[in-house]
What we know:
Bound molecules: S-adenosylmethionine, iron/sulfur cluster
Radius of gyration: 20 Å
Largest sheet: 12 strands, mixed
CATH superfamily: Aldolase class I
Number of helices: 11
Shape: globular
Order of helices and strands: EHEHEHEHHEHEHEEEEEEHHHH
Mean pLDDT: 92
Amino acid sequence: xxxxxxxxxxxxxxxxxxxxxxxxxxxxxxxxxxxxxxxxxxxxxxxxxxxxxxxxxxxxxxxxxxxxxxxxxxxxxxxxxxxxxxxxxxxxxxxxxxxxxxxxxxxxxxxxxxxxxxxxxxxxxxxxxxxxxxxxxxxxxxxxxxxxxxxxxxxxxxxxxxxxxxxxxxxxxxxxxxxxxxxxxxxxxxxxxxxxxxxxxxxxxxxxxxxxxxxxxxxxxxxxxxxxxxxxxxxxxxxxxxxxxxxxxxxxxxxxxxxxxxxxxxxxxxxxxxxxxxxxxxxxxxxxxxxxxxxxxxxxxxxxxxxxxxxxxxxxxxxxxxxxxxxxxxxxxxxxxxxxxxxxxxxxxxxxxxxxxxxxxxxxx
Length: 365
Ligand code: SAM
Ligand code: SF4
Ligand code: SF4
């Protein structure tokens, strides 16, 4: 593969003044498609101890790659401040992600700070984290004690050789499986296990994963391989659709649909008819769900993105560091959200959508 570096620190900002509206507490906030802001995903680092081939191919994310220096990253206080303002605007759910979020030093301190936040109605947030699981055994107890509610662990194969090949690491699959059990043991449950399926590469792992996680209490979720970023050489022919996955699984273990928990839920939920538990499919490619998308994403250095496939972010860090008040910050985030029209997955492949996009390892899943 040719080396195309789409540098995190080179991600362009939206040009000009940050949008602003005079937002008042209690006022409804929706984007141009009437979608509220409910979910904030915060990427706390662009670094990772894996080099999953579909996310951080080693040819690109090598020793020369310009990862962000620590001074560029928002501090825990700055992250918490933006989160508090976003919660005032309607955010009910916060997910920490990365890169690998457990690599960020003292991440449990950030969890403890975010766990103090309450919605305007006085409810605690749904506070979760997505991880590759390698450090979970070490961190699960501290995360739980700090107030984390649940974790999602990524695992693409049970076969040890294939796992090491896909994650391009020396970490064994048993370490991740042990991390999942450690999370469940301390009550970060149910654990969701995310498997990205690449046709011809790991689709033969679907049934072993199904058999392994049935009756475990963990919720296995199958993710269609997506064209995030600009470095993984994505090709539609490598996408196994959610429908095809469900057909394979249902042929051996009959399934029935489960009602979504809430509007905007990403995974389509299914349960085994024999009572062995629940699974999910995330069909961003074959069956886009932009119509209900209520997610904003913040990068490690405080840029706000309105879509996983965005190519530009809104720089909140300058505002945060230049002494702007919380009311100003709220007005700017509200102004940014009000102008949002993103629906990339619905228009994938059409004119104007084949531009460079932010990397998944920078903005998180
Ligand atoms: N490092 C953590 C992890 O792997 O769980 C958190 C960040 S990772 C970017 C978040 C999620 O994005 C993971 O579940 C990963 O499998 C998923 N992901 C990354 N690249 C993807 C792609 N091209 N298509 C679908 N999912 C992808
Ligand atoms: Fe790291 Fe997660 Fe990307 Fe894999 S998917 S390279 S674990 S950030
Ligand atoms: Fe939301 Fe963008 Fe994904 Fe559509 S493509 S669901 S707008 S993040």
